[in-house]
Amino acid sequence: MGDEKKIVNILCIVSIVCLILGSIFIDISTKTSVYPTSEYWVAKEYHHVYENYSGEIVDYIEENERCEIKDDEIIVKKYSQPLNGIGWVLVVPSGILLAYLILDATGLWDKIFGYG
User: Fold this and answer.
1) What is the pLDDT of residue 46?
2) Distance CA 95, CA 99 (A)
3) Most buried residue, 7, 22, 64, 107, by CB count within 10 Å?
4) How far, in Å, CA of 29 to CA of 14, rounded?
5) How confident is the model at residue 106, as a pLDDT?
6) Which is it for the CA torsion 86, 87, 92, 96, positive or negative?
C-alpha cells in the first residue's frame, strides 16, 4: 500500500507542475490589445480595427488572433504558436488527472459515479 501512495503523490506533483507550466505558457503566448469603442470600430466579420477619426486600420485581425467586443471595448487576443498549443496540451490532461486523483483520494469518485 505504501508504493501506491508514493505513486499517487508523484502523479499529483507532476500534474500540479504541468498545470502551472501550461498556464504560464498559455499566458506568455497570449498578447491582448484593448481598444475603446469610443475611439475605434471593427469591420464586419472582425477583420480589421479602425480608428474613428482617421478611418485608418490600426489592427489587422490575423488567423492566430481572436476579436470580441465586450462592454465598451474591442479586445484583440493574439495567440503565439506553438507555445500556446503546448500550454493547452499540458493543462488539459494534467488537470483531468489531478481532478481524478483528488476525487479518488477523498472517496468522492465512488460517491459521484456510484462505484463501491
Assistant:
1) 82
2) 6
3) 22
4) 22
5) 86
6) positive
pLDDT for 1 equals 57
Listed in sequence order, the residues at least 6 apart from 97 whose beta carbon sits closer than 8 Å to its beta carbon are 11, 15
Q: By three-state DSSP, how is residue 110 classified?
A: helix
HSE (side-chain half, CA atoms, 13 Å) at 47: 3
Sign of CA dihedral 24, 29, 33, 34: negative
Q: What angle in degrees, to the nearest 10, is found between the helix axes of 2-28 and 83-106? A: 150
Mean pLDDT, contiguous 10-residue spans, the chain (116 residues) = 84 95 95 94 88 92 90 93 93 94 85 73
Sign of CA dihedral 21, 18, 115, 7: negative
What count of other Cβ atoms lies within 10 Å of the Cβ of residue 76? 21
Instruction: Write a three-state SS string for 32-97.
Output: EEEEECCCEEECHHHCEEEECCCCCEEEECCCCEEEEEECCEEEEEEECCCHHHHHHHHHHHHHHH
